[in-house]
Amino acid sequence: MIDYNDGAVVLSGNDAFSPERTFGCGQAFRFGENEGCCEGIAFGKRLRVRSEGDRTILSCSREDFESVWKDYFDLGRDYSAINIDRDDAFLAKAAAFGRGIRILRQQPWEALCSFIISQCNNIPRIKGIIAKLCGLYGEPADGGFAFPTPERIAALPDDGLDAIRAGYRAPYILGAARAVASGKLDLPALTALPTDDARRVLLSVNGVGKKVADCTLLYGLGHTDAFPVDVWMKRALSEIYPGGFDEKRYGGDAGIIQQYIFYYARETKLNV
DNA sequence: CGCCAGGCTTCTA
DNA sequence: TAGAAGCATGGC
After folding, report:
1. Is A221 within 8 Å of A193 (Cβ atoms)?
2. Which of A5, A29, A207, A245 has a Cα-to-Cα distance from A13 of 20 to 30 A?
3. C-alpha to C-alpha distances, A165 to A67, A162, A224, nearest whole angstrom
4. pLDDT of A148 strictly over 70
5. Burial call A37-51: b when 16+ CB within 10 Å, e when fewer
6. Which distant-in-sequence residues (6+ apart) come within 8 Å of A206 by Cβ?
């Protein structure tokens, strides 16, 4: 059920949306905790969102909720309908642990750029680099900054990213931005392609390997069958499923399953 | 100080 | 086709 008050949208009877877990599970880097709220900027708009019992309260207008945040939080999907193998006790536990996580549908360029930055990096530093990138080259937005457009970054000289201290990733970012800005890389078009074809296109970008491509597919392009495997996932999968884990079995829910496993592994350090 | 971080490219055998 | 080195920086 949805209530619209002035300046707020209240979702009730809803235990399947946890902003804290959604932003705490490492899929987005521009939201943080502030006065008991998750707060950040996406789509050039600031949002504060918090849960209160079985209600979720978003500080936004009805129009913005309908046009932006509803899709951003993937609220059209029923996560409780995901069918977990009856004999997979670990996965049931991980899914319960991560209940309320939504797979964010971020802007494609933001997802690609963010996960290029994420490679071989730690989360606090990833957030710091992205904050600097936005502060320097993003348009002012609601007292903060929007994520910079690829065009803005593409126009920079080769040393234009020195100040964000991204290290060896800087040329990757510039190259990707120039590919997008020139029209050579059409990110939105990848949404309509089969996942494997879209992945092939992403892999042609210098600095983008399978992990970054899969994160872009999952968090930025709506390909929820993508199944990013990073060091944590590798560790978890080899410990829990020594015989291998067949994510294709979960089809378009594989990406959500991945998020449950990843979140559980990181939060518990895998004390199964 | 040393180890490591939601990897990728390049070089080598 | 697999494995290792090198990469740039800073959190811990």
Report:
1. no
2. A29
3. 35, 6, 32
4. yes
5. bbbbbbbbbebbbbb
6. A171, A172, A175, A176
What whole-number distance in Å separates Cα of residue A94 and Cα of residue A50? 22
Indicate if CB(A183) is under 7 A from strand C: no
Chain A 210-249, CB < 7 Å to strand C: none
Grouping H, G, I as helix, E, B as strand and the rest as coil, residue A68 is helix
Å between CA of A258 and C1' of C4? 29
pLDDT at A269: 85
The whole-number Å distance from A157's CA to C11's C1' is 29
CA dist list (Å): A179 to A103, A109, A149, A185, A204? 26, 11, 12, 5, 11
Note the CA–C1' distance, A162 to C9, in angstroms: 12
In one-letter notation, the amino acid at residue A78 is: D
Average pLDDT on A148-168 reads 98
